[in-house]
Specification:
8-stranded antiparallel sheet, alpha+beta, 3-stranded antiparallel sheet
């Protein structure tokens, strides 16, 4: 009889020691996650500094391009004024050219006639040879003056046309440069905008990670307090010789037979990374099929070892099923059972309220303090 009592006490101590070990493992895991997230945060800060430096550079580039655009804009305006003046001059030159062409034609005809005078007429019309000679000299000078006038007019028209073409080409070149700078400004602005969005995303990530780290540290502190309390309870329970033993078969024989505690859809699977912490889920998250209140049922018979609010899990209930197995039910609205209560399989233990932006129902199964995949235990 004493040997049997000794075995019972040993089993109780083993069970509660396993529970304490479970929370100790959780504390170590939280510490590991905090360090991992701090490393990610440090990486984000380095990226943040790099992006800020790039933004500073692109802002300077935008400033330089803006100055070039202002300078080109002034040059274009000056050029437009010159072209406008040249346009007026060209119109005037066209008018002069039209009249000059007629004059030029007349002068050429006249010159041609004067170059080949009718000598017989001149001899008959002159009283002596001196007068003839004098007329010949006058004609020579007149012809030379006319020729010079014609040449000067031609040069003037050619220069005006050449100058006008030169300014048109310069204006075209300035316009091309201006469009090139506008395109460059747009490209730099787009790069700047992308980098600004990336910087904002990084800064948001840093802030979210900071919040997550604070939460994990707070969870660790609360978990340490809970471990201390459970350890004290373990010592007290060891003296009462009480141990939960399932009526039939035991939990280990229930693989593939258990039903979900809440009817719904799995939206976060076991082992799936969660944003933004990157922590892998130790359980599953369920979205209940119906909105409003949903009944939470024990997956198997057992004893309630925790029934209270815990930050990060809301109203949490933990049921020990014997053999080192336990199940956790989180984010409940109402807890129907208290610590120490014995519950039957599929008995109502809590109420979960499914609403739009509230946390989804959380469920875990553990063995010897370590999380295991609920999928292998649930009925398909």
């Amino acid at each position: 009889m004493r040997f049997l009592q000794f075995l019972i006490i040993l089993l109780i101590c083993s069970t509660h020691s396993s529970l304490a070990q479970n929370y100790d493992n959780q504390a170590k895991k939280l510490e590991s996650e905090i360090k991992r997230i701090q490393k990610l945060q440090e990486k984000d800060r380095k990226n943040q500094a790099k992006i800020r430096q790039q933004l500073k550079k692109t802002n300077q580039e935008l400033k330089t391009v803006g100055s070039k655009l202002n300078s080109l804009d002034k040059d274009l305006k000056n050029q437009e004024e010159l072209v406008s003046k040249l346009e007026k001059q060209r119109i005037k030159n066209q008018s002069i050219t039209a009249g000059s062409k007629d004059i030029l034609t007349a002068l050429i005809v006249q010159y041609s006639k004067q170059q080949k005078p009718n000598l017989l007429q001149m001899l008959l019309s002159q009283s002596n040879s001196d007068e003839f000679d004098r007329q010949q000299v006058y004609l020579k000078y007149f012809t030379l003056a006319r020729q010079q006038q014609i040449n000067k007019l031609r040069i003037s028209l050619q220069n005006a046309e050449s100058t006008n073409k030169e300014y048109e080409q310069r204006q075209k070149k300035l316009q091309e440069q201006y469009q090139k700078q506008v395109k460059l400004q747009k490209e730099i602005a787009q790069q700047n905008n992308k980098k600004s969005k990336l910087l904002k995303k990084i800064e948001t990530g840093i802030a979210e990670k900071s919040t997550t780290i604070k939460k994990l540290k707070a969870d660790k502190k609360r978990l340490s307090a809970l471990i201390k309390r459970l350890e004290e309870k373990r010592k007290a329970t060891a003296k009462t010789n009480q141990e939960f033993v399932p009526a039939k078969g035991g939990f280990s024989k229930q693989k593939g037979r258990l039903l979900l505690p809440v009817s719904g859809k799995v939206i976060v699977a076991y082992g799936q990374k969660q944003w933004p912490s990157g922590i892998r889920s130790n359980g599953i998250q369920l979205k209940a099929k119906q909105s409003g209140r949903n009944t939470v049922r024990a997956i198997y018979e057992g004893r309630v070892i925790f029934s209270n609010w815990l930050k990060g899990f809301g109203n949490l209930i933990i049921i020990e099923h014997g053999g080192g197995f336990m199940s956790l039910y989180g984010h409940n609205q109402i807890l129907n059972k208290k610590e120490g209560d014995i519950v039957a399989a599929r008995e109502t233990v809590a109420t979960f309220n499914q609403q739009g932006n509230q946390a989804n129902f959380y469920f875990e199964i553990r063995r010897q303090g370590k999380p295991i995949n609920p999928k292998t235990w649930l009925r398909k």
